[in-house]
Fold this sequence. Notes:
Layout: H1 2-35, H2 40-45, H3 51-61, H4 67-79, H5 93-128, H6 133-147, H7 150-164, H8 176-184, H9 192-199, H10 202-239, H11 242-249, H12 254-272, H13 274-292, H14 297-306, H15 310-338
Amino acid sequence: MRTSRGALLRYLALRLVLIIPTVFILVSVVFFFMRVIGDPITAAQGGRLSPEQLEARRESAGYNRPVLVQYGEYLSQVVRGDFGTSFSDHRRISDVLITNGAATLELVIWALLVAFLVGIPLGRLAARFHDRIADVTIRSFAILFYAAPVFFVGLLLKLLFSSKLGWLPSSGRASTDVQLALDRQGSTTHFMIVDAIRSGNGEYIADVLKHAVLPATALGLLTAGIFIRLIRINMLETMRTDFVTAARARGVPERKVVSRHAYRNALIPVVTVMGMEIALLLGSSILTETTFEWKGIGYILSQYLLARDFVAVQGLVTAIAIVVAVSSFLVDVINALVDPRVRY
């Protein structure tokens, strides 16, 4: 018991220490990549201001100093949680992360829920009917889910369920009147569903849920395709192992063999890839949020790109990189608790 606990602590300590160089490399890559296009002032205002005005603004913002000096100052700001202030709307990036980041996190949670509800049962069903029509059909859908561009899936969903059938709203996180009502109720969490539940109004809750269905489905099907393949492959491998054969030899019903042995072991790889899936969801959320006007980090990042506000872009991308690194560590912790083999 002590050996297992010690191995777990060593593994977690190592993973925690590795976060520091990982975040450092990510922040450095973002900083120097953004400097390839030149300083943010020239990139945003070049052609709109005279050379004298540009130089004055560059000097005021400190962009005429050596790049390494700017790099050192930026690192110190990031350590303090200061990701800068946008040029276009003069918002602090930390405030943008709190307000719009909550919307993105809410969308990712909804998308993961869709991925679990669709991917895990279908993956289990495909393994149960290996090489039959159900298996072939489900595998084809899994490939389609993963390969189809998320914005294309989103547009198809909008055309079918919003424009043609009129069942669901096509954009936003809530109706305008619901949004205004939730804003007037006082302090908000920026999580629309949480604020709707706090209001105690069933119509508000239903409205928020309706607005979440299409974007969550478009984004969630992308991850569902991966879950289907993982569950199917690992269940098939587990079904061929000795302990499953022994269970069958003891007369254990096939349904229990699948649910108690193969299914539980097949869930471990899903936990393992969650870190990568979070990064994939955050990247894909840019297209999803733009398609459905879901005003999260992805949506606001696209607006800053159109405005050529590269200070805001740099700050948001840096923050996303840090979130991905920390999320990967948390997934490693869960994975180590679920599967003791990763500790050694």
